[in-house]
Amino acid sequence: MEHIGVLASNLLSPIILLFVLGILASLLKSDLKLPSPLYNGLTIYLLLAIGLKGGVELHKTPVSEFIWPALITLLLGIITPITAYNVLRRLGRFDRINASAIAAHYGSVSAVTFIVAVSFGTMNGLTSEGFMPAMVAILEVPAIVVALMIAFTREKRAGSWQEALHEVLAGRSVMLLLGGLIIGWISGPDGFEPISPFFETGFKGALALFLLEMGVITAKRLEGLKEVGGFLIAFGIIVPILHGILAIWLGNMAGLSVAGSAVLGAMVSSASYIAAPAAVRIALPEANPTLYLTASLGITFPFNITIGIPIYYAFAEWLL
């Protein structure tokens, strides 16, 4: 019952309700829409905040405690977009561009799912390792890069391997995440403190506003799901569970606690709606946002919040 209460509280949070408001506003044909400069500014803010906070946590953690979980997370960031891409291509018959765009989302991380997973463990007396926020940035970057590189190398797009790699690494999303991670690591807690109120206090508010626009965008493209809705729904539930179980098993092998393994499972099972949409919009503008946004926000996100996270904790406790 306690778990149900925690989950209900999260589902009724302003962040989720603003997402729903965006969907309703669009379905009711309201003129509600964030100005493009504001949307771009929110994207920059959120990506940089995640990178900076991850870097600060990394600065405080001894290398011996961090190295194996970090390597496992990096490995998962490479494996998961590849498995997602192949499932979408071979079973879902998606074209390469859309399969790559969706795979980028399912390889990277939902920051809110990560926060809820940590909170769920805390509410039940289980505390994850303090460096877990750094894993968000470590998981985010390779997953997006791998998924986008698949599109660039297999679709015979304009440019070479080197040009494609430069476009991905020099893109706004990866640049902000990696740059923030490095700056946070160099600065440490003392250096980050003067700017922490801006990046910490305002983070959830900015995320809520970002999700309002995501709701508007998702609702506008729901019609596109009629052709592939059944497969995408199954994909959005089954693939995250498999990714989550794999992450918990590897996290256990890397020495993470029950809570740490479960949080890693929730991270790997989640689908991004901050970094990946921004990266895909820049690198794969022809990809259909209806598919990747609705799959990540409309299917996987609510599934993980309501059912997935308890499953990951239960599996981690059983395994350990």
TrEMBL record:
Coiled coil: none annotated. Keywords: Membrane, Transmembrane, Transmembrane helix. This is Sodium-dependent bicarbonate transport family permease. It comes from Rhodohalobacter mucosus. PANTHER family: SLR1512 PROTEIN. The lineage of its organism: Bacteria, Pseudomonadati, Balneolota, Balneolia, Balneolales. InterPro entries: Sbt_1 (IPR010293). The chain crosses the membrane at residues 6-25, 37-54, 66-88, 100-120, 132-152, 164-186, 198-219, 231-250, 262-284, 291-315. Pfam families: Sbt_1. It comes from the Bacteria.
